Amino acid sequence: MKLKFAILLFISVVSIFAGILAGSVHAGIQDLCDYLRGKHDVRGYIIWKVRIPRTLGAFLGGACLAVSGLLLQTYFRNPLAGPYVLGISSAASLAVALYILAGVGIHDAGIVGSAFFGSIVATLFILCLATKVRNAATLLIAGLMLGYIFSAFEKILVTLAESQKVHEFVLWTFGSFSGVTWDNLKVIGVLGIPAMITVFTLSKPLNALLLGEDYARSMGVNVKAVRMVIVILSSFLASLVTAFAGIVAFVGLATPHMARLIFRTSDHRILIPATILLGAVVTVICDIASRILLYPVELPVSVVTSMFGAPIVIYLVIKRRRI
Amino acid sequence: MMLKVSKLSVGYSNAILTGIDLNVEGGEILGIIGPNGSGKSTLLKTISAILKPIDGVVYLDGRNVHKLKPLELAKKLAVTITDRSDVGFLKGFDVVSLGRYPYTDAFGRLSEKDVETVMEALRLVNAEHLADKPFSEMSDGEKQKIMIARALAQQPKVLLLDEPTSFLDAKHRVEIPLILRRIANEKRIAIVLTTHDIELAVRVCDRIVMVKNGRIIAEGWAEDLDSKIVEELYDISVAEFDPFLGTFELKGEGRAKIHIVCGGGSGARVMRLLTKNRVPFSVGVIHEDDIDFYVAKHCAVEVVKERPYEDIKDKTLEDTLRMIKNCDFVIDTGFPIGKINAKNLELLRAARRVYSLRNKEELEKIGLDAETIKITDLLKICKY
Lengths: 323, 384
Prior knowledge:
The structure holds two protein chains of two kinds.
Chain A: H1 2-21, H2 29-36, H3 42-76, H4 88-102, H5 110-132, H6 136-160, H7 163-174, H8 182-201, H9 203-209, H10 213-218, H11 223-245, H12 251-263, H13 268-292, H14 301-319
Chain B: E1 3-11, E2 15-24, E3 29-33, H1 40-47, E4 55-60, E5 63-64, H2 70-74, E6 77-80, H3 92-98, H4 112-124, H5 140-153, E7 158-162, H6 170-187, E8 190-195, H7 198-204, E9 207-212, E10 215-221, H8 227-234, E11 239-242, E12 247-250, E13 258-261, H9 268-276, E14 282-287, H10 291-299, E15 302-306, H11 314-325, E16 329-332, H12 343-350, E17 354-356, H13 360-366, E18 371-372, H14 378-382
Helix pairs in contact in B: 3-5, 4-5, 5-6, 9-10
């Protein structure tokens, strides 16, 4: 167990360095040191201002999405749940469509603000539903349907918009960490890390929820309160990443499975830190791959995460029918 | 009174069971039986505070369970439901230790005492060997044992079980009721279980409550069931419930062309074989206390009986001889012959044609002229 965590930590560090070094401009640690000492050349600038925030953004963003996915997989007891099943991505995407395609939205908020605003609205919708529904399955269906409604409106906008704008919008929905700045990173860190720590403190009720809501209730879990906290945290984590990086597919769905398989456990006290690290590492690696696979063209990160995530899900569905 | 249910109405939006009153003491097992869909599970979920009642109150040690905090209630009341749980990589021990939820710290860490309690719970359900087995690889019966142990790990005063023996293999259908009895006796826990299996209920429960059409239609001691009410409960007309045997017996129908002379339990298998193959028959003379009599009562179209421990009277014998005349043949099941049923031998000697389950030597010894036959060949001669 400790060895696996050590290896994972080691891979995390290596992947971050790889993320900083990989790219179209050849720049190394030396350039970074020079830049930090005050020698302002282009290569140092690229590393400090572009690659480091981007790589750390992918690292934190991947962790947030993975934890969000784990929470919902456990709560819904459904191996195919992910951070976006409650309609977060569709809502963010609708808000961004309104902003880019229709020019509707607060001007200063930009894409990031619009996306975040959209997902918060969806979260509030889901929270209202969560107080009313009797069980997890109903909430899951309601969330999925909510997503369809948001998507429908988004498609109306896409149908009516100019093609140039549509291209910009579609690229956003593919997701990318390339635009992450130091300021963005601070926001993700300040909000995302405490949220993930809070999830870790929920390990005990999450373990009880493995047996389902009825059993959890009978063992003393305040199911309604825990349900609200799960919905709030998972939606918040997903919203945070979506705002800054667009819709990053599959990380939140596939990495919790990888964590379970690697650590051979369903105990959230181990699973949550493992999922955080795996989500982070996998996303950083995918981000690197998106830069170099079709070099010099940069692929959207969702392309890589999907190509990598989908086969894993297929393998899981065929090999083991349990979460 | 450990558990007291008072004027309870349960259901989701509409009440499906109303006016339910129950009392259960520590160490007692109460069975709630009824056909599928009668609301038994909903009742159990309401008593365990998973569902809110539509009306009425459930008291545990004098306190309203729906007003207790979840953690407080979990220390007093535990439940197993029929929900199919998929718990991933959790092992038997892990699942049982989840039952320590109300006692462990914020991170669910187990103290030495917690581990002892978990192992004791595993011992009570004969499942110590399952501690390291992954839950997802267990059979239904093993899973049920683990879920019961998990409930016991909560150290409850009341244990509620929904359909504890449904879907189980033969070994666990026998073992789980024994385990429940042991829990009631050793731990003085009050147990309430639901089942649609009256034969199980009679074996394991002290008292039985029958629910149908939204209410309790009867209740009482397991040893004091009225067979008519049981048959009404299940809407059964092709079989009859025998409170003495605690089982259902298929009902024989038609005009008897075969007569069976039996006793001492030698005839039960023969009668059940013919009844399930729809071959009508009559039986006699049989003593009223004989085990064969309880089977014959339901399976045979006609039974000639004699009072317990009395010699067969001439009048009874004559009635039977008249009956045999209309039959194609008589089956001798190889019953033990003693003083009180000696006249049954005369009956056999007087019959036109006799098939006997005895062997040749025995037939010679008692001086009976009959064809020997094996029980497995009986159907061939009955279905001509």
